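Bug #77: duplicate submission created two jobs. Keeping one. Sequence:
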Amino acid sequence: MDGTFVVALPGATVRVSDRAGTRLVEVRGEVDPSTGPAVRAVLTAQFDRLPAALVVDLTKTRFLTAAGVNALLEAARLADRRGVPFAVAADGRPVLRPLRITGADRAFATRPTVHQAFSAVRPALTG
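Kept job's structure:
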């Protein structure tokens, strides 16, 4: 088994896969009070798998509330504690605005594409 799985939630889908030791968590739909706890659980569970790095893809996320911001901040804290490079791909205003307003975008690398988010974690892996 390659470790790929999908969690279907009302209003959101979370897909987790592995790319050369880096865990990729793709979130589609809305991360709000009803889906936020499940997204948080999926994110934090990735650290049990000892990833070389973790990238969260929010480029297909249509809505992000404080529940989603808090899930990302918790994942960033865990990543920092465990020495796991962490980055988020986000390009839409519904995601970027709450990250900027709360200052969460300064707590972790935020890039406009998944490719750039992977590039953000690679120097930490090779350096």
